[in-house]
Amino acid sequence: VTEQRSVAAIAHAVRSGATTAAAVVEDTLDAIERLDPTLNCFTGITRERARTEARAIDARRARGEALPPLAGVPYAVKNLIDVEGVTTLAGSRIHANAPPAGVDATLVARMRNAGAILVGTLNMDEFAYGFTTENSHHGPTRNPHDPACIAGGSSGGSGAAVAARLVPLSIGSDTNGSIRVPASLCGIFGLKPTYGRLSRGGSYPFVWSLDHLGPFATTLDGLAACYDVLQGPDAADPACAQRDVEPVRAAVERGAEGLGIARLGGYFESHLTPAARAAVDRACSALGVTRTVDFPAAALARAAAFTITASEGGALHLPNLRERRDAMDPLTRDRLAAGALLPASWYVKAQRVREWYRQSVEAVFDGVGVVITAATPCVATPIGAEWLDVGGQRLPLRPSMGMLTQPISCVGLPVVTVPMPCVGELPVGVQIVAAPWREEDCFRVAASLVACGASFAPMPAIHA
Amino acid sequence: VIEQFARITAIAAPLLRLELPAQIEPAPVYRP
Fold it and tell me: A146: part of which helix (H) or strand (E)?
């Protein structure tokens, strides 16, 4: 499958002089103008900045300078990530009149240094508390594969903009699944790195002890290239690890040889609709996986993540709940208010269960290198849908979209989500999960699926 | 709010019933 406007293709074309960064930017802005009124991915377009950054790249090339790895590659960021001169909305109306950010977030600065060109900010669930991007202030983001359906969330704009090929790269955040859910439902590649791997400096928090930032891309190679330029310690994020950059782009060529791969059973297997189970089947078949392992107590881990999220989120937004509650989305407001009422003993218990669960998961990785499961229990559902039928149960849809992602991010494991498309069906993705700091192993397994043609980001119907 | 609180309570209930060794501390974050 050839991706015409992939990260590698654009960077190569700009570097070789086959096109200019300025031309890439104008094409990108045209595509956004044409398709975004339908999809509603963007909450802001940074036209002038994009044109200025493009001119700078073209000038460097004209002077004969070596260009950085993402020179001329357009991208966009979830609107909880600071962009100099732009108000950081975090999906809310409350922040609409806040002053613009004074400086770029750490990851935006790193993308700028790598030559990437920022074209805008992206829609999300209010304060990142949701899995559907049905934002009552900015409208729902629509899935490029079926605009009547959700794009997933909370980084729905980040997922849909990439899936629609408006940009080949975007950056989002993942607290309980907010990168992996939209990557799955939109049929693209996404990375939730190990907790502490990528700096959150200059991003608006949701749940301090669970928040991660990470990229989306139309290709695995593009995802790796982006991840490599985003890595590195940062004093602006107290949870960011003091680890050297560990590049993965070259490592993917080694394939999955020698990595023990297993399928996640138990809790994970019992929460799959037929479409999600078929996606995992295809991945396991392509990789020759026959072994099944379990993360014992995954249901308790999800309960812990749910409780910690409500409690930390409620504590963060207590001033808004007291003074600005009328400006909040009713669903977000009620979730946060309930979270703010939880007893402290529940929160402490949840954090203790999390530590207990982490130890048991670590033991699983003594025996295998990588585990695989679906990223969402189902394909994209219609906007406004309330219920999900899975495993013989009828569950509330909005929180249940994260039931396969929460027990994994709860203990900070790295995950690459890959699309496993099936002709004639909406996409659903598979999570490739490794032990802490082993992102490289996730990429190696993902690369095997790409190499055999099982995984690629399908072109959405909106381009048909 | 009551509905949301009930939803969290239902999900958290098994967590609250679980007995853990006293030595398990609330320290889940990977540090360098």
Answer: strand A146-150
Position B32 scores a pLDDT of 38
Catalytic residue, chosen from A6, A78, A173, A311, is A78
Of A157, A152, A214, nearest to A184 by C-alpha is A152
Low-confidence ranges of chain A (pLDDT < 70): 1-2, 464
Residues 6 or more apart whose CB falls under 8 angstroms from that of B27 comprise A351, A355
Give contacts of A303 with chain B, Cβ < 8 Å: 11-15
For B25, the closest of A302, A342, A355 (CB atoms) is A355
Residue A45, CA atoms < 13 Å, CB-side half-sphere? 18
State residue B31's pLDDT score: 54
Do A202 and A215 form a contact (C-beta atoms < 8 A)?
no
As given in the structure block, the two tokens for residue A426 are: 């909406």
Which uninterrupted H or E stretch holds A322?
A: helix A318-323
Active-site residue A154, yes or no?
yes
Instruction: Report the candidate in A277, A253, A265 with the shortest Cα–Cα distance to residue A378.
Output: A277
* Minimum CA–CA partner of B31 in chain A: A241
Q: Residue A433: enclosing H or E segment and its boundaries?
A: strand A429-434
Question: For A320, what's the count of Cα atoms within 13 Å in the CB-facing half-sphere?
Answer: 23
Best of A198, A325, A355 to mutate (most B CBs within 10 Å, chain B)? A355
Query: Which stretches does DSSP call E strand in A58-116?
Result: 74-78
pLDDT score at A4: 79
A78 is catalytic: yes
Shortest Cα–Cα distance, A26 to chain B (Å) = 43
Q: How many CA atoms lie within 13 A of A86 on its CB side?
A: 29
Q: Where is A119: in which H helix or E strand?
A: strand A117-122
Q: Is this structure's pTM higher than 0.95?
A: yes
Q: What is the mean pLDDT of chain A?
A: 96
CB contact under 8 A, B12 and A241: no
3-state secondary structure of A418: strand
A87-103 CB burial, b ≥16 within 10 A, e <16? bbbbbbbbbeeeeebee
Task: State the burial class of residue A325 (Cβ atoms within 10 Å of its Cβ: 0-12, 13-18, 19+).
Answer: middle
Residues of B in contact with A436 (CB under 8 A): 30
